[in-house]
Design a protein that fits this description.
Blueprint lengths: L29 E3 L4 E4 L1 E10 L7 E9 L11 E6 L7 E9 L8 E10 L5 E2 L6 E2 L1 E7 L11 E3 L3 E5 L8 E6 L3 E3 L6 E6 L3 E11 L2 E11 L4 E5 L3 E2 L2 E11 L4 E5 L4 E5 L3 E9 L2 E9 L5 E3 L7 E6 L3 E2 L7 E3 L2 E5 L2 E2 L2 E6 L7 E3 L6 E6 L3 E11 L2 E12 L13 E4 L3 E3 L9 E8 L3 E2 L8 E3 L5 E9 L6 E10 L3 E3 L22 E5 L5 E6 L18 E9 L2 E9 L5
Parallel strand pairs: 1-9, 2-10, 11-17, 19-26, 28-35, 36-42, 43-47
Antiparallel strand pairs: 1-3, 3-6, 4-5, 4-7, 7-8, 7-10, 12-15, 13-16, 14-15, 16-17, 18-20, 20-23, 21-22, 21-24, 24-25, 24-26, 27-30, 29-33, 31-34, 32-33, 34-35, 37-40, 38-41, 39-40, 41-42, 44-45, 44-46, 46-47
Amino acid sequence: MHKRLLFPLITCLLISTTTPAKGQEVQAVAELLTPDTDFCENGTLNIQIRFGDSYEAPFDANIDIYDAETGDSLTTAYEMISGYYPSNYDNNYTYQRSIHVGQNFNGEGLRIIISKVIDGEGRVFFPESGLIKGETLVNLYKKPGGCSAGDDQSLCGLSAELKATVGGASTAIYWEAADGLNISDPQTAATQVSANQPGTYPLTFVQENGPCRVSDEMTLTLLGQPSAALYSDSEICGSGQAEFTASLQGNGPWKLELSDDSSIDAIQDPEHLFNRAIEGPSTLSITKVTDSNNCSTLYSGEEGTVAEVVDLTPVLGSITGESEICGSQITLHIEAHPGSGSWSLLPGSAGTADFSEVNDPETLVSVDTQGSYAFRWTQNNKGCEKQADFETTFFFPLQATDFTAGPDTTLYQRDQYRLQATLPEYASGQWLLLSGSGTVLQPNNPHSEISGLSPDTTLLIWEVKRGNCPPLSDQTTIHVKEPPTGISPNGDGKNDYLVIRGATTINNNELRIFDQQGKLVYRKKDYNNDWGGTDQEGKDLPDGYYYYLFTGENTHIKDYLIIKRSKR
């Protein structure tokens, strides 16, 4: 709207002497009744004046027009009324005036007033008197130029961007659309538009400048966007042919592209069935669908575009249990799903087995014979089976009566011996040298030879172990003796003294000689291999058998000897 300015009238005319006194309400001599008006570049204005019926006719009046922007008087717009006689029924005077842009003024608005009135008595009235009332403002607007709604569009989808061109000044711009089309902001030149369904929609872009209105039309064709869904009810057992259904919407025929890098062209049926060879649990998804308008929609795993093929093959974990067990019972466990399963004993096992809960993934197994057993869990899911096997060995605990290390033995002038141990079934053994001398040639053989025996007592342990059961042991003793020691103390320098090898190197040694009745006949500490068959007093002992005991640090020798003197 144009700014309306009131400008004082500058005149050199004389003011009427009939100016009303202050506070006195007097009827106006003339009043301009024409309302304010807007025109688009031009128009015809009906100027209406009411003259007061208390004044004498005829009336003369001047109508002045001013530029509302500048306040300048438009002399060319001057109008004069002369000798007007109101009728008996109407005191209004009306005349028409054509107004248009650029003809009578340079601005965009006019201010119209009554500048002077003369009644029939010759009285002159001016606006300053307060007896002339009213004014009219006329706004003139130029018609916008260059308004454009843009080119017609044909697009995929159900939305588009509108870009109109605005030409010249305007007081308002807006889009008008057909039913079914939604405009996000209709009062902007560039805006988004959407539809609920595909179709061709006319659009009008309107530009207003006051009462001026121009418009332009364009046609928007929204082709829609194809969509696709994929599902499958197929179940396989490890592998097989799976059936899929693609549900398509939009303008067919369609082209479907899938996640296995395959594609299906020229699909006519919105519900399209097809098959694929599947290995194991798998998914197939739509990656792209294209319709007959070459409009496409891309997918990346959205809900409804991925079809899962169910593999009925059960999922089995490993059977847990001990690979060796001491006893006749074992607990077996397996993680298995879905479906149901059962335990069984495989052929070739050592004996029979009893399952406490044959259909329970965790069960207690009892066997009747020691040895190796093979167990199987079979899981069944809607006829699709999978199996898991487990082998274990049962060892029954050893008893002391199950084996022996062999009898004790005494050897004379021998340094080797074949051992006589026994080994029970499902067991292993080893020889351990507890004391004495010798080397077991085959430590795990119950009948191994032992060599390197010296005249001494050798103590051997035969330790037997069955699986992971606690080991048991038995022992055997080997006594190695030299032939009875004999001395011939006849002074010939041969075998005159009892010689005990290493005696002189044994600390705190002692030799004691006993007769056959066990009587001590000779005793000497720190023996130095110098006893020649005498008693404690140095007298010769009679020929015969005697016993001797030689002791010392870490030494204990008990044996018998013969004294035999030859004739000189």
